[in-house]
Amino acid sequence: MAKRLIPAGYNALAFDFRGTGASGPSLISFGDLERRDVLGAVRWLREHHPDQSQQIVGVGSSTGAAALLAAAADQSDEGRAIQAVAVYGGFADLSTLARVASHGAFLPPADWLVARIGLPIASMQIGTNLSKFRPATYANEFWPRPILVIHGGRDEVVPFEQGQSLFDAATFPRERLWLPMSGHKQTIDDENAAETVREFFDSAQSMPVI
Question: Which of 6, 50, 131, 204 is the 20 to 30 A CA-CA neighbour of 58?
Fold first, then answer.
């Protein structure tokens, strides 16, 4: 996702969320608690690379998109430091996504049970209410900063309707890029999408607030 940004002069920081990659074992929360990892990354950048982080923008996909939006809407200094975001394959509402996923993976009545019991059980284990985790709310609260929503029409992980709902929840300045023939990974790897992200960040400006 950063392949067009670095040659264009952007500094890039990529990191592993809790429980992923080289990070220690941890339960994942689909972006809810991972927002703290994003805020921690911003704090680290500003402390250790102040000259290179005068302007901070964020790019995330799927769970990373949800975590980025939640972090960017945070009222901390780190949250407010994120000046623009571009999200690939993001979901608008975790409860709705869980219902759609369970319906596709299980036959009735198991799909009903998984959708309505799975998230509450996971919430108790993780220590946060996943049923109320709605990245669409954070997309709206990100105003007046600009947001770019990118989604594939054939996304098999996060249905396109979730991307549409995410975009609809955002307030101007907002932009979108729909890739009708692309699946989840194809969207992330798309060269035109990467170029659109670069152009978006080059011109991104917050909405003047009077």
Answer: 131
DSSP class of residue 106 equals S
Percent above pLDDT 90 for the chain:
73
For 39-59, what is each residue's pLDDT tens digit?
Answer: 999 999 999 999 999 999 999
Q: Who's near 42: CB < 8 A, 6+ residues apart? A: 53, 56, 71, 78, 79, 81, 82
Count of all residues that appear for the chain in the document = 210
Peptide bond into 159 cis (omega under 30): no
Q: Which CATH superfamily is domain 51-93+134-204 in?
A: Alpha/Beta hydrolase fold, catalytic domain (3.40.50.1820)
Q: What are the C-alpha distances in Å from 169 to residues 16, 53, 73?
A: 28, 29, 13
Task: List, for residues 111-130, the tens digit of each pLDDT value.
Answer: 445 556 667 777 888 888 88
In this structure, the number of other CB atoms found within 10 A of the CB of residue 130 comes to 22
The two three-digit tokens of residue 114, written as one number: 């998984």
Query: Please, where in the chain does CATH 3.40.50.1820 lie?
Result: 51-93+134-204
Instruction: Cite the beta strand spans of the chain per DSSP E.
Output: 56-61, 82-88, 147-152, 174-179
Contact 92, 135 (CB under 8 A): yes
